[in-house]
Design goal:
By secondary structure, the protein is an alpha/beta fold. It has 2 domains: 72 residues, no CATH class; 270 residues, Lactate dehydrogenase/glycoside hydrolase, family 4, C-terminal (L-2-Hydroxyisocaproate Dehydrogenase, Chain A, domain 2). 33% of the residues lie in helices and 21% in strands. The strands form 6 sheets. The protein has a 7-stranded mixed beta sheet with strand order 7-10-9-8-11-12-13, with helices on both faces. The radius of gyration is 24 Å and the shape is globular. Bound molecules: NADPH dihydro-nicotinamide-adenine-dinucleotide phosphate and oxaloacetate ion (OAA). Keywords: Chloroplast, Disulfide bond, NADP, Oxidoreductase, Plastid, Transit peptide. Its EC number is 1.1.1.82. It catalyses: (S)-malate + NADP(+) = oxaloacetate + NADPH + H(+).
Length: 442
Amino acid sequence: MSVADLTTSPVTSTYTKTSSRLHSSQLSLSSNRLSVHFSRSPRPIPRAQNFKITCSVNQVPAPVAVQTEEAKNKSECFGVFCQTYDLKAEEETKSWKKLINVAVSGAAGMISNHLLFKLASGEVFGPNQPVALKLLGSERSFQALEGVAMELEDSLYPLLREVSIGINPYEVFEDAEWALLIGAKPRGPGMERAGLLDINGQIFAEQGKALNAVASRNVKVIVVGNPCNTNALICLKNAPNIPAKNFHALTRLDENRAKCQLALKAGVFYDKVSNMTIWGNHSTTQVPDFLNARINGSPVKEVIKDHKWLEEEFTEKVQKRGGVLIQKWGRSSAASTAVSIADAMKSLVTPTPEGDWFSTGVYTNGNPYGIAQDIVFSMPCRSKGDGDYELVKDITFDEYLRKRIAKSEAELLAEKRCVAHLTGEGVAFCDLPEDTMLPGEM
Ligand SMILES: NC(=O)C1=CN([C@@H]2O[C@H](COP(=O)(O)OP(=O)(O)OC[C@H]3O[C@@H](n4cnc5c(N)ncnc54)[C@H](OP(=O)(O)O)[C@@H]3O)[C@@H](O)[C@H]2O)C=CC1
Ligand SMILES: O=C([O-])CC(=O)C(=O)O
């Protein structure tokens, strides 16, 4: 039995609750206090029969059935996460922070299947940060989404206080403080890159609009769905009321891959590699920067003397790692991508270690490196741990690095022209370079 008490002041107030598990309801009214009692059905009521209770102290209408379409568009609490709780009532949870709302799209997909459990465990936000997960799926994935939510229920994570599922971004993104945008159509056989940009771009234009309308004004957005840099650009252009600085394209997986390859070549463990920048696009034009990276605190080029290997083999290995993995595994990186999303978030919520930095794809306006304005480009960043970041200033460039960065920049400018219809910048014109691909394409 759960009870919701409402104080009506001064004359009329409205309370609305929809739930697929509402079983019976009882309304009581005394002076200016209205109580709604409802109990749960052991089995969910079919979605079309959800109840909507709307009450005022002047008129107390009977529960009415909600239209099927409306019910479908609602983001609803799931199962055990519909229970009420009071963190202040328990000794162990009294000192916890305020609940944080994390929205995840493509929540029934492979990457999310790893990521959600990391978020719920406290690995990302710490042991005193309760978490609400708001999962976005679609008509096609709704049952799978329920399966994911059931697994979250069965994991009994103490920090996971709320889980809701839905298919309407305007519902799911409400009050989101983080939005992890993973859902995107994978490129199928014979599909042109421009076609992928258009189809996925439309998803991110829509989700940008939804974030703009209902998310927290300081929401941090990490775009994972490919092509992630240009999807992030589309998203931020459709969310003018959210600072463009808050949007990221995930290139942390590339950074992690680059660190691993350098460690392997140098014969050290990967925790000895630092200051690793990935410049540019999450594509085969990305530039893993061995000029500024360090191994055991020394410049990579002093530790690895084979500079030809760095320029050719190392660079290509990182650029094409995703494709090699798909050939072995039969599907694209999911676990390591989830790890890298968690890393990217941790880098924004914990202070960056002295002297080090991390890579993330961010909006280029005001960058000190001479990279074209108005694109989303991976660059070296530091954070104080407040969710924000600043670009690192002390970076060395040589001709090789400049030339490689220019190629990735040209690719992103071409991608931008190709989605002009989705960023509000006129008519699209697609002249994408033919020799560049997503990391997962071979
Ligand atoms: N930036 C990076 O480093 C990396 C990015 N990626 C990218 O992440 C994305 C998700 O990967 P992953 O979780 O493995 O993929 P999955 O195929 O497992 O899941 C993707 C989800 O995308 C959603 N989706 C949205 N629109 C469509 C559509 N039109 N057709 C089909 N599915 C759609 C589906 O969910 P629903 O039906 O609920 O919408 C699906 O569950 C991909 O774009 C991939 O390329 C992958 C690895 C690394
Ligand atoms: O291309 C893909 O879908 C996979 C990908 O981004 C990667 O492995 O880096």
